[in-house]
Amino acid sequence: MDKVKKPKQVDFTVGPILKPMLLFSLPVLFGNVFSALYNVVDSIVVGRFVGSSALAAVNTSFAISMICTAVYAGFGMGSAVLIGQLFGAKRFEDLSRATATALIGAVIVGGTMSVVGLLISRPVLVLINTPPDILDQANIYLKITFCGCASQLLYFMGSGMIRGLGDSNWPMYFLVFCALVNIVLDLAFVIFFHMGCAGVALATVIAQFLSAIMVVWRIVFGGYGVHLTRKNFRIDIVMLGKILKVGVPRAIQQLADSIGLLCIQSFAN
Q1: Spatial CA neighbour of 250 closest among 100, 88, 69
Q2: In the chain, pLDDT over 70 holds for what percent of residues?
Q3: What are the pLDDT digits (tens) for 252-264?
Q4: Among 118, 155, 156, 166, fewest CB within 10 Å belongs to which?
């Protein structure tokens, strides 16, 4: 007997579509509000308890981190579309292969982004005319943030897959919980441990790591019909190509906006 309670999933392939679409969309919109809290809270905490230079350092780094977010969003969209198609077609074997491909790919791409980010963080800050008096603080914040690339990508792709499986509630729950964890850790690291910009960056990375663990756990043990085994837990080239087919154009579109923001930040600096 299956002990896992069947999740509440929206099936858009049967019945009227308007009501299910509204019920599905509301948690996504609500979750996006809490997603924005990460950088907002970082700015508020350092501005209130550290100083104006720390606030400027965090805001300068934000423009660069948005480029990474564009990549996360693109791959998350690619995963959501493919998983949604396979789930709607009831192709559960392919669904499991696509899930394994997405999860492994997130770790590999995210890890690569972390290494590259650590190497280029300071040169990029110099390139966008970051003032010398905040350069070191911005560099520390950015380097620690880059360490969480794999976690961030895992969350975006994992939450996209859960939504593709017809469940928009659990990604919202995880996002709300981790946003609250981020707030608590921000205050603890800055007020009690006096870690400044490094503290708010570390708080964000820890919260993002928790969110990644939660979405992966939910995918594997949530009762969605995904069965990962030693045999199918590998990268499937066909599935990877389908994810990239949707994800890359979406990432390029997001990158255009992010690069525009980076140019504005450069002029502001």
Answers
A1: 69
A2: 94
A3: 888 877 787 777 8
A4: 118
